[in-house]
Amino acid sequence: MVNPSLDPAFANDGNTETERRVLLVEDRGPLRDALVGALQFEGYDTRTTTNGRETLRRLHSWHPDLVLIDLLVHNGTGLEICRQVAGLVPSPIIVLAPVDAEAQLLEALNSGAVDYATRPLDGRALITRIHTTLARPSQTDGPFVDEIVEVGPLAIELSRRRVSVRGTPVHFAKMEYEVLLALALRPGEIRTGDELLEEIWAGRSFEDPRTLSTHIRRIRKKLETDPGNPEHLVTVRGIGYYFNANGRGP
């Protein structure tokens, strides 16, 4: 059950942190919705991820000011995600965990988290912790660690948003890059259109529901040997898309 104090109506204390970015690593559900609502109500630009790969991608493409990680996310992999984030970027980390998860909380703090909150979450207390953490002298101006992800014909340099296809640098427009990365970092996993729109266009407006399919067509022209018969960016009719690293087609 979600604590009522996470309702945005209870979270605001009159302080608005404009243009500060918070990345929330949390499974889909009522808790995530409540957290996003409270953070946005406070003026934080908030994006969400649900696993390590998504988080890695978002860190390098978006550069959040603070990362909020539920240790129970994605079948309990939050602690490992915390370690990865702490080893890659200078953004402060706050972790969430059940009140009886003392060992995991201590390990998260030893791994680089700067603070924590326990369930049931108190919205006011959590927002105060975030305000306090971001009010400290900034450590988020340091360099992000370069990382190159190689999958199928792609080599993606995350920190510089550079993509090579079969060894040749190829320019992808901003949203083309976002769509390609969302699929390539989870090869073989079918992503529905709604999931991709929520992840990539969250908080933005787009008028035409065919926006995603338009970007898919453009990506295929740059990625596929035969864009009319794609082997890597595969459509699953009526469901969505997936990235096939080995290029065997549907």
Textual characterization of the structure:
With 250 residues, the protein is an alpha/beta fold. It has two domains: 4-135, Response regulator (Rossmann fold); 148-243, Winged helix-like DNA-binding domain superfamily/Winged helix DNA-binding domain (Arc Repressor Mutant, subunit A, Orthogonal Bundle), CATH 1.10.10. Helices cover 39% and strands 20% of the residues. The protein contains ten helices and twelve strands. The chain has helices spanning 8-11, 30-41, 52-62, 73-76, 78-88, 102-111, 123-135, 174-184, 193-200, 211-223, and strands spanning 21-25, 45-49, 66-70, 93-98, 115-119, 148-151, 154-157, 162-165, 168-170, 191-192, 233-236, 240-243. It has a five-stranded parallel sheet, sandwiched between helices. The protein has a four-stranded antiparallel sheet with strand order 6-7-8-9, covered by helices on one side. The longest helix is centred in the middle third of the chain and has 13 residues, at 123-135. The protein is elongated.
Helices and strands in order, then pairings?
Layout: H1 8-11, E1 21-25, H2 30-41, E2 45-49, H3 52-62, E3 66-70, H4 73-76, H5 78-88, E4 93-98, H6 102-111, E5 115-119, H7 123-135, E6 148-151, E7 154-157, E8 162-165, E9 168-170, H8 174-184, E10 191-192, H9 193-200, H10 211-223, E11 233-236, E12 240-243
Parallel strand pairs: 1-2, 1-3, 3-4, 4-5
Antiparallel strand pairs: 6-7, 7-8, 8-9, 10-12, 11-12
Helix pairs in contact: 3-5, 5-6, 8-10
